[in-house]
């Protein structure tokens, strides 16, 4: 068995970013930028009012009250075409272009209007309440770097920069093969000796969340030839990653490793010093990475969190940073063995900002209910000593803290 960090380094070693494609702006969300975003225009492209009020000359309101003649209106998308001269004012609204000749905005609360005449009741300095052209960015500015995932904020910025299409990294194609005579599809007839193939759904959702495309190749029984045929189908679909579920251990019915070997897969590792998830294997077949996850549901999902997510990030030109948070225990933990342990737990944020984590009382690797309850994993090093309430620990978040 090899350590988790060593296995992850081996898995990601030599992984190259996938090729680039251009997509319309409305399809760029959640994709990863293949290159920097450079502004195609200046934003805002003109001096704009930040408030509703009147565009005036600061010199005309140095002394108040001051009477000014309203000579027109400037609205968003429809500027005043004239020039503001001495004693003039232009009614202006938020976002509208500041007219030529005006150098400040008198907010409407500081003006009393009588038909086409206003009386300024407060002075205002030059430049007040004006957003200068280019306040946000100028044409040619680099706004986003390659490797940024296009979240809603990034997408809005790209659109403001006048882009209509975006170069992004191709989505990784991930074929998912569930193995085992005991498995049936959800909704299909089953005997009392069979269970639903649930792992496929969880892994497919994880692939989607990580920006990939999941290809479900269904369930394959405990037959080496059938598993090999499924691998052929996955390769024919030009899969970047093939994920098998189950059959990675050493039992008489665990045939995935044999099928890998028969196909000429160059195994990178087999068996990890971790719990849950010891029977995890990985290898390469040409440009395709194969990841053999354990059959136990919790083991499969934890291994996918620790290995599949970083792999998909690397294929998209990103570095998957697994941040470990410091917390204090609200429960007791016994001594650990020689494997790195990932303890399912719930963490809460106290009013003082401290994270307090409670280990779940059952850690069986078959219990999805416990995994669904957990919002974090307590990471325990090999041979860790017993820990008690109040002791410090490190944890890995699985989802946001409620």
What would you say about this model in short?
The chain has 402 residues and is α/β, with parallel strands linked by helices. Helix content is 18%, strand content 31%.
Name of the top-level CATH class of the largest domain: Alpha Beta
Kindly report the spatial arrangement of strands forming the biggest sheet: 7-4-6-5-9-8
Roughly what percent helix? 10-25%
Number of helices: 7
Rounded Rg: 31 Å
Global outline: elongated
Task: Quote the distance from N terminus to C terminus.
Answer: 36 Å
Could you say what the CATH topology of the largest domain is called?
Answer: Molybdenum Cofactor Biosythetic Enzyme, Chain A
Instruction: Spell out the CATH superfamily of the largest domain.
Output: MoaB/Mog-like domain
Please describe the biggest sheet, giving its number of strands, its sense, and whether it closes into a barrel.
6 strands, mixed
Key phrases:
alpha/beta, single chain, Molybdenum Cofactor Biosythetic Enzyme, Chain A, Molybdopterin biosynthesis moeA protein, domain 3, 7 helices, six-stranded mixed beta sheet
């Amino acid at each position: 068995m090899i350590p988790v960090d060593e296995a992850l380094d081996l898995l990601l070693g030599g992984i190259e970013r996938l090729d680039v494609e251009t997509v319309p702006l409305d399809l760029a969300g959640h994709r990863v930028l293949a290159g920097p975003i450079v502004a195609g225009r200046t934003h805002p492209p003109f001096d704009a009012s930040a408030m509703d009020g009147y565009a005036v000359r600061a010199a005309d309101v140095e002394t108040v009250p001051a009477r000014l003649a309203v000579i027109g209106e400037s609205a968003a998308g429809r500027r005043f075409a004239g020039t503001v001269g001495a004693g003039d004012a232009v009614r202006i609204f938020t976002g509208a272009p500041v007219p030529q000749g005006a150098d400040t905005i008198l907010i409407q609360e500081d003006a009393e209007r009588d038909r086409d005449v206003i009386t300024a009741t407060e002075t205002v300095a030059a430049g007040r309440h004006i957003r200068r052209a280019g306040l946000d960015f100028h044409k040619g500015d680099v706004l986003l770097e390659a490797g940024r995932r296009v979240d809603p904020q990034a997408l809005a910025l790209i659109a403001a920069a006048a882009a209509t299409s975006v170069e992004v990294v191709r989505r990784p194609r991930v074929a998912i093969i569930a193995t085992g005579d005991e498995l049936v599809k959800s909704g299909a007839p089953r005997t009392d000796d069979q269970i639903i193939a649930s792992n496929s759904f969880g892994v497919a959702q994880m692939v989607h969340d990580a920006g990939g495309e999941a290809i479900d190749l269904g369930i394959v029984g405990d037959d080496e030839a059938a598993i090999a045929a499924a691998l052929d189908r996955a390769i024919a679909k030009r899969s970047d990653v093939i994920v098998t579920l189950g059959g990675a251990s050493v039992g008489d019915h665990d045939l995935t490793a044999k099928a890998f070997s028969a196909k000429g897969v160059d195994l990178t590792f087999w068996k990890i010093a971790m719990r849950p998830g010891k029977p995890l294997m990985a290898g390469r077949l040409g440009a395709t990475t194969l990841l053999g996850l354990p059959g136990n549901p919790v083991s499969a999902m934890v291994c996918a969190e620790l290995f599949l997510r970083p792999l998909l990030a690397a294929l998209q030109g990103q570095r998957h940073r697994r941040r470990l948070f410091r917390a204090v225990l609200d429960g007791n933990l016994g001594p650990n063995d020689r494997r790195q342990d990932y303890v399912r737990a719930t963490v809460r944020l106290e009013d003082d900002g401290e994270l307090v984590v409670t280990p779940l009382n059952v850690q069986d690797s078959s219990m999805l209910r416990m995994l669904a309850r957990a919002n974090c994993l307590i990471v325990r090093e090999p041979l860790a000593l017993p820990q008690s309430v109040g002791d410090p620990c490190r944890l890995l978040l699985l989802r946001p803290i409620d």
